[in-house]
Structures are given as structure tokens and as C-alpha cells.
Amino acid sequence: MALDQVDRRILAVLQKQGRISNSDLSETVNLSASACHRRVQRLESDGYIRNYVALLDARKLGVPTTVFVEITLQTQADEVLDAFEKAVARIPDVLECHLMAGTADYILKVVAENTDDFARIHRQHLTRLPGVAQMQSSFALRTVFKTTALPIS
């Protein structure tokens, strides 16, 4: 299904205000409430809208430290990649894992209470991941910009 400009406006609003009422959304995008509701349902069923979530404050939840971990594997054999990906997905402190092209095979985004907590995560989880040859960690000093909103043109 191709997206028209109304669909794009709906998506732009919803990804920034996921709890907006259908009435307010329909007014914002200049549609009737029923037409807006049908479009949102279609966008959900077609997979453009995957989920609705609450974005939580890491600082208030006691995990203000963000660490990016570059991981190089011993080999890129399918069974090693699969084993690594299954194991890393079970670590609750890892928010993101990306298979990369470049110097590292994977980049992880990890949250921790502080450097001591990251040392625990590193020791108990990261060093036990299968197939790891090398790891390099970089601590974020400050988040300058962060968004979950995708560009919609």
C-alpha cells in the first residue's frame, strides 16, 4: 500500500504524540473522526505502526549511563552469528544490537547505573557472549540529541 499525504501526517503526529485521542488526531490532520480511525487501523494492520510504547526516563529509573560496545567476532559463520544474537537478546541491560558493516561486527547500546554497574554487566554478560574476539566500550558523556521519530516525507 502506498502512503498518501494524510497517512504521512497521521504517522508524523502519532510517533510524537502516541496517546493523542482520535478526535484530536482527526482535527489535526483535517479528517472526520471515523475516516481517521479507519486510516489508523489500516496503518496498524499493514504494519506501518508496529506498537505504542511509553518512553521512560533512564535517569529516574536509575540507569543514566549509556555505553556503546563495539564487538568483533572470531568468525562470521552463520552458527556463530546466530548464537551471538540469541545470547545478546537475553541481556536486559542491552537496549539495541546492530549487525554492522565496517570495523566492528556488532554495536550494542547498553544502559547501566554507573561505571561499576557496567563493569558487572561486562563481567557477567558481555564477556560470556559466544564467539567474541574483541570488545571496545565507549561511554556517552552526555546525550545531545535523541529521538524515536522517523523522518516522514
Describe the structure using short key phrases.
four-stranded antiparallel sheet, 153 residues, 2 domains, single chain, Arc Repressor Mutant, subunit A, alpha+beta, elongated, Alpha-Beta Plaits
What does this molecule look like?
- With 153 residues, this protein is of the alpha+beta class.
- The chain has two domains: 5-45, Orthogonal Bundle (Arc Repressor Mutant, subunit A), CATH 1.10.10.10; 65-139, Lrp/AsnC effector binding domain/regulation of amino acid metabolism (RAM) domain (Alpha-Beta Plaits, 2-Layer Sandwich), CATH 3.30.70.
- 35% of the residues lie in helices and 20% in strands.
- The chain has five helices and four strands.
- It has helices at 5-16, 22-28, 33-45, 78-88, 115-124; strands spanning 65-73, 94-99, 106-112, 132-139.
- Strands 2-3-1-4 form a four-stranded antiparallel β-sheet.
- Strand 2 and strand 3 (106-112) form a beta hairpin.
- Helix 2 (22-28) packs across helix 3.
- It is elongated.
- Residues 3-64 form the HTH asnC-type domain.
- Keywords: DNA-binding, Plasmid, Transcription, Transcription regulation.
- One of its GO terms (cellular component) is cytosol.
- InterPro entries: ArsR-like_HTH, AsnC-type_HTH_dom, Dimeric_a/b-barrel, Tscrpt_reg_AsnC-like, Tscrpt_reg_AsnC/Lrp_C, Tscrpt_reg_HTH_AsnC-type_CS, WH-like_DNA-bd_sf, WH_DNA-bd_sf.
